[in-house]
Amino acid sequence: MNPHAFDTASARSYGEGPPRQVPGYASLHRMVSLLLAERTPSDGRVLVLGAGGGQELKALAEAHPGWFFDGVDPSVDMLRLADEVAAPHRERIRLHEGTIDAAPAGPFDAATSILTFHFIPADERLATLQHLHRRLKTGAPLVLVHLSFPQTEPDRSTWIARHVAFGLSNGTDPAHAESARQAIASRLTILAPEDEVAMLGQAGFSDASLFYAGLSLRGWVAYAG
Fold this sequence. Notes:
The chain is α/β, with parallel strands linked by helices. About 40% of the residues lie in helices and about 20% in strands.
């Protein structure tokens, strides 16, 4: 992940983006919470990769007052924001600057990575999943949500256009929408859904299930083998 992708100004405005660009954003956090709770004990330890911004930490900490969290993000500005957003639960949260290498060894009872993997370069995706797998207890759930759609034309361009159109319909500034279109088209790492599932299997995860599909975004839950 690029540690400079979110500078101070971008970090401050980050909280406005997902609710406008991610269909069912508030419900998505509730779904993630329910899926993790199926196998995570009441005093469980959860690894959050891409914790900057703090929305995911805040939602999970509010729903599960006995859970403890380690959040990892390469952007110090985004981690500062996460610390502010999740401040009421600060005693149960440790934040780490860096990529997955900066995460504690665990073992963790669960892990999440929400709206993060499309920022990870293609040649680092499998290794990142393998690092997550090594930090999880056997049978522990991993929840992933990020951009994923067919990568052959004309489908690829159609899905990018749908993503931009959804943001515009929710009040996204046209200039920001165009910036998002350019990023998705040329700078983010996006795989087709079937390739996502195959890579989870390569990394040692099993029983991957699609639980969320919101236009250009997909979410899976899988379990450490």
